[in-house]
User: Which sequence fits this backbone?
């Protein structure tokens, strides 16, 4: 009887890296099982299901791989040793450099890969929605802390400023995917930095 399952020499880590790049480039809906299997070293359907169970389960693993590598650019948002302003703008600057880097798919996997409604289950979209919500909440906390510390004026519209900064973080993905250079993205961040100054406590 023929054996099924993983072929000899199957490299699970390399396969996940390949899947991560495919989801990053084409999105969850745009990455078919056939494209996945070919991009993961030409593994068989039996090997695919034996190793990962389903496309959705593989996506979760690929997203975890991204968050632990390229997605670490948002780590400053969680670094309480930094001042609120540093947390936000270090994150934006790192994101701009990473997302425009031509050595991998441009933009952000969390922002681009599972954004639109489709036929797949809602749980997949909920994963990236939670990540974006986490970043949004962190940015709002930074603005709140800056107001409390007296760095920003008490008249600052916390929700408005936080939403604007989150919009810049998300917008980097679209512009990077459209080919906007990291220099121009950085210039946009510097402009946002000036807006922060405009809200400083007098």
Assistant:
């Amino acid at each position: 009887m023929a054996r099924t399952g993983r072929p000899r020499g199957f490299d699970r880590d390399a396969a996940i890296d390949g899947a991560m790049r495919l989801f990053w480039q084409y999105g969850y809906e745009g990455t078919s099982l056939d494209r996945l299997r070919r991009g993961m070293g030409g593994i068989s359907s039996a090997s695919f299901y034996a190793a990962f169970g389903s496309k959705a389960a593989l996506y979760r693993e690929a997203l975890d791989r991204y968050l632990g590598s390229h997605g670490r650019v948002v780590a400053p948002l969680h670094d309480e040793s930094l001042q609120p302003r540093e947390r936000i703008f270090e994150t934006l600057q790192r994101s701009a450099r990473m997302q425009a880097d031509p050595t991998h798919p441009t933009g952000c996997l969390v922002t681009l890969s599972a954004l639109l409604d489709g036929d797949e289950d809602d749980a997949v979209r909920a994963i990236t929605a939670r990540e974006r919500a986490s970043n949004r909440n962190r940015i709002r906390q930074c603005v709140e802390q800056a107001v409390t510390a007296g760095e920003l004026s008490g008249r600052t519209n916390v929700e408005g400023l936080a939403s604007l900064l989150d919009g810049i973080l998300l917008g980097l993905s679209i512009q990077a995917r459209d080919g906007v250079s990291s220099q121009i993205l950085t210039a946009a961040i510097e402009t946002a930095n000036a807006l922060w100054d405009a809200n400083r406590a007098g």
